[in-house]
Write a structure and sequence with these properties.
The structure is a single chain. The chain is α/β, with parallel strands linked by helices. It folds into three domains: 67 residues, Alpha-Beta Plaits (2-Layer Sandwich), CATH 3.30.70; 81 residues, Met-10+ protein-like domains (GMP Synthetase, Chain A, domain 3, 2-Layer Sandwich); 170 residues, Vaccinia Virus protein VP39 (Rossmann fold, 3-Layer(aba) Sandwich). The protein contains eleven helices and 17 strands. The chain has a seven-stranded mixed sheet, sandwiched between helices. α6 crosses α7. The longest helix has 16 residues. It is elongated.
Amino acid sequence: MMSKAIKIDKKLGSKAISLLKKLELLDGSKKIKCVGDFLLIPILRELKDDEAQLFSRSVGPFNICIESFESKKLRPRSLIEALDGVLSPSELSFLPRSFDIIGDIAIIEIPPELSHAKKLIGEAIIKVHPKIKAVFAKAGPVTGIFRIRDLEHIYGEFKTLTLHKEYGCVFKVDVLRTYFSPRLSLEHHRVASQVRDGETVIDMFSGVGPFAIMIAKYAKATVYAVDANPYAVQLLNENRKMNKLKGQVYPILGDARSILSSCRLEKSADRVIMNLPEKAHLFLDVACKIVKSSGVIHYYAFANGDDPIKSAESQLNKVLSSCCESGFLILSSRKVKMIAPHKWQVAIDVKIL
């Protein structure tokens, strides 16, 4: 395709391109050419007299020429854009608007109406996000004591181990063998930002350590990180070594109830983290035994209905009233993320009196 262009010494190329962008004259839809010692830079129109003077003054001598340029392949900005014309309008209406990215792996929930188009969707995700290497579709819910789900590989490399970055921390995660949710990034940071130097924190269901590592990254705290999944604890150990920590993280393999009942940690914790939303209420009696007076429990639950916060608080009040003799005070509650229609993950910070 023929286009007007600026011909300039390639040594002046960076300055020329920068100024053309500021003047909104660079034709970004075409590829810049290098011919001998010169760059040919496509422009949207010829320079006006004042623009040409500014260009000569700021960059150097140049010529205007007519040249043929190869068009750039513009990356689609969304799944809808990538699949427009590939899927029908009715199929596009079922397309998920979001998906999880963990490191260079994408995980998407594909509705039954689009089960025939899994490969096309996976290919489109990589077109939109070229740094993604593998795409998986959810093949079941999060289940079991290890909190993992079945995944179906639909496009790209078959890889499940990746490095995920979050608020200055890096986590080695295996999406098939360990639990990790990038949608909890803000929650990891929110809790970590509350921890002060000298605190003792017990993370009852730590996984690969997103709470524990981030806490020890920013505070000179002692964190006991407990998990029943041996592979998660192995990765937690690696994550502990990969991150430069101010505090200390002590990984512990085993069931939180049996481990914390036998580790002489009674009334030792300034904070207890209970990120096991489906079953955390079953461990509140353990949390009450290990948290100090005036300590805080960061409690997570799943809740339904029109007012999920009220529902989660009601369950928490009921259980704590039976196992916490000293009393308690709810400090704050918030909806963390929607996990299904009318179903939310709720975070409640409660102070033990």
